[in-house]
Amino acid sequence: MFVQLSLDEERFTEVFFLDASDQISLEAGFKSIAQAKGVGESFEDGLFYLEKRSDHWLLFLDNADDPKLDPGQYIHRRHGNVLITTRNPHNGDLAPDFQRQIDHLGQADATELLLRGVYLPDSVDRVAHAAEIVEVLGFFALVVNQARAFLAKGIAHYPITCDFTRAIPTQTPSTDSYKYTVYTIWSISFDCLSKTAKTFLQITCFMHHQSIPLFMFNYAHESLSELGTDDCGSSVPISLTDFLSTFTTEESTWNEFCYLQLIGEVRSFSLVEYDSLSQIISFHPLVQQWARHYSSATSSVIDTT
After folding, report:
1. Please, what sign has the CA dihedral across residues 101, 106, 110, 112?
2. Cα 192-197-199 angle, rounded to 5 deg
3. Per-residue pLDDT, 122
């Protein structure tokens, strides 16, 4: 499905908004373009229709997060403009000189987003209260947008606290423009991870959310190697030793390449932030809260019994 928008008509002759969350949705969007323009019944017809146009149209591919989806095969270089929103850093290779990473909104933008379409009593200082809310929510665009939808439907009221984050897993406002709630998006991302990446996330999410040193897993491996299996006894879960062994070579030395591949996998779903210079990762506080909640609510990958 696609939505045709009237956006900046002076710059773009036509704007097409497509759901790019997966291949089926994206191709259905191109098919809808073909049908709406009367040029065919397939997604290829929609692609060809845009390719042969020589004007300055804008194609908006939203939520292209699936690592199995390659948006590049749907982008033509001759005419038009393409804007992609994605949490997959590899999609930045499609236009390395024009990619922009937006981790968090500024306070002004977050406040404006929260107040969009929300009615508040005259007695409420809209901007001041909204500024308090977005600060609590960490200026996280997904969460602020979800909070806005709650307010617009009267689900939540001022004054607002972190209770928003507890409501997110169970409330799904039908008027919200996102297909999933915030917690559901992260849960879907988690389910797509390998077992090793899930284990890594479940371990690190219970640490402080900032500046988690990656070398500690190497140290843990070296400590276990020095102690030996007999010295460790039953105090170290077998599944934990199996987890660490994933990053070792046949000679039982630390395999940095495999370890960085794991970090890349978790980063591709925007679940952690990675500082390659300092070799540390950090969680957004709300992502960490979700990860802890999700790990406690599901069976743990690491058996600590």
Report:
1. negative
2. 115
3. 58
CA 288 to chain centre: 13
Task: Round to whole Å and give the CA distance between 128 and 304.
Answer: 46
pLDDT one-digit tens code per residue, 85-121: 887 777 878 887 888 777 678 888 888 888 887 766 6
Helices H / strands E in the chain, number of each: 12, 7
What gap in Å lies between CA 10 and CA 20, rounded to an integer?
26
Strand partners, 15: 5, 58
CA distances from 108 to 23, 91, 139, 145 (A): 35, 28, 10, 14
The residues pairing with 275 across neighbouring beta strands, listed in sequence order, are: 280
81-84/212-213 β-pairing? unpaired
CA dihedral 80, 86, 91, 95 (to 10 degrees): 40
Can you tell me whether residue 287 is helix, strand or coil? helix
CA nearest to 198, candidates 269, 273, 252: 269
Report helix, strand or coil for 300.
Answer: coil
Q: Which helix (H) or strand (E) holds 36?
A: helix 23-37
Burial (Cβ within 10 Å: 0-12, 13-18, ≥19) of residue 47:
buried
As given in the structure block, the two tokens for residue 123 are: 């007695």
Maximum alpha-carbon separation in the chain: 74
Residue whose token pair is 């020095």 = 226
- Residue 149: which of 174, 127, 176, 169 has the closest Cα? 176
Where would I find the H helices in 214-281?
Answer: 215-232, 238-245, 256-267
pLDDT digits over 161-209, tens only? 444 444 444 444 333 444 455 676 677 778 888 889 998 998 999 998 8
Q: Which residues contact 66 (CB under 8 A, 6 or more apart)?
A: 21, 22, 23, 88
Which residues lie below 8 Å from residue 148, measured CB to CB, with a gap of 6+?
113, 114, 115, 116, 117, 118
CA distance linking residue 177 with residue 244, whole number of Å:
41
